[in-house]
Amino acid sequence: MSRRKLILLISSCCAAALLLALVFLLFNNFSKGLTSETVYTLTLSSEELEITDKNVKCVLSATLTPKNDKAVLEYSSSNDSIITFDESGVVTAVKSGVAAAVVQTAIDGKKYEAICMVIVDIGENVSDIEDGGNLEQDPGPPVPAIPEPVIDSDGFLSSDNLMEYNIYNNDAVAWIYVPGTNINLPVAQKTSFTDREFYLDHGFNLYPKFSGSAFLDYRCHIKDKRRVLDQQTVVFGHARGTDIFDQLEKVTLRKSWFENESNRYIYLNTLLESTVWQVYACYYTNFDIAENQIAATTPNFLLPESVVNEKYSSAEIVDATSKGTLFTLQQDANEFRLYAATWRSRMETTDSRYSPFYKTLFTRDYGITDPIETDKIITLITCADANSNVRYVVQAKLIKTRERVPLE
């Protein structure tokens, strides 16, 4: 074979090989295109919905992208006692509360889900009032007025009526305000174990009250010291009725509340000081788990007596005891930080009534670091449901204090 023919043969073989390689690549890519998994998205026409009239029917439309005629959409409510959500996308309010309208489907073994947070605010639930036996109760004598909240130029709440409430009833020891909600009210405290929950169902006039009053844990020292000295200031309040902590869950769950940064504060005034706290957590937690309840309701995490005796002199211990502040020497900073900074580990994830909100609450960025050993926190607690031991919790970190300006 001549050299020229050999070169032509080699060139032809190379060209054929290149052509085959090109065909293979094109076929391979085409095959991948035919067999690649389609990625779907499932959405509802609204992420949040508020219902204030029980007789109004609201409709949510579900959209699957890209369209798949074989997909079967399933509609459900996370809590049928709050709302129902039928296959036509109609949301019907049952009673006041918070629930999720959920639509789901499964395609090729993969699940897709979309939720809409539904806040039902249609007033008191008569059945709940009847269960409490308070439908016709005597409200008793009037209590002092509640002024509109005013934040002064230094960023403190300057408009409370705590002094007058304290004169009216010396159990009134603090005033709390949460922006964006109707929580702007006095806070009571009983300091004995026996009476610790008196204000759960009583007003400041000492008469029975269906929604009760906001009140401090009996172990907090605000009534005694008139200022914040505890590692954790714990405030309880009912979510039933239309006042106290009725809006704690309903409002702070909302995207609109969270996205307004000026809302993410708690203002607490005592008789001697004004304090400002920045919210760092909102979540559901199950108090059937002892650790969860301890973490949220313990004002001070205490060192063993032997450690306190090693850490402080006898003179320091005697002096603190005489002043009633021994608990400040006993505070275990490491134990406090362990509980305060690990709140995500105590979020409720198993109850279908609250699990739809888990991801949203877990991933919120409040723009503030979790508490450290030297911080103080405030914890607001309310019932998430009358039929379970799940609680809704809002926590904030103390960022500034000021001695109270005497009233003129």
The gist of it:
The protein has helices spanning 3-35, 126-132, 162-168, 222-225, 246-252, 255-259, 290-297, 305-311, 314-323, 326-330, 333-340, 358-362; strands at residues 41-44, 48-51, 58-59, 62-65, 74-77, 83-85, 90-93, 97-107, 110-120, 172-177, 184-188, 214-216, 232-236, 265-270, 273-286, 377-383, 390-403.
The N- and C-terminal alpha carbons lie at a distance of 117 Å
CATH homologous superfamily grouping of the largest domain = Sortase
Low-confidence stretches: 30-35
The CATH topology of the largest domain: Sortase, Chain: A
Helix content: 25-40%
What fraction of the residues are assigned to beta strands by DSSP? 25-35%
Radius of gyration: 30 Å
Q: What's the number of domains?
A: 2
Count of helical stretches: 12
**Overall outline:** globular
Mean pLDDT: 89
In N-to-C order, the SSE pattern is HEEEEEEEEEHHEEEHEHHEEHHHHHHEE
Largest sheet: 8 strands, mixed, barrel
Number of strands: 17
CATH class of the largest domain: Mainly Beta
- Identify the strand order in the major beta sheet: 10-11-12-13-16-17-15-14
By CATH, the architecture of the largest domain is named Beta Barrel
The computed structural class is alpha+beta
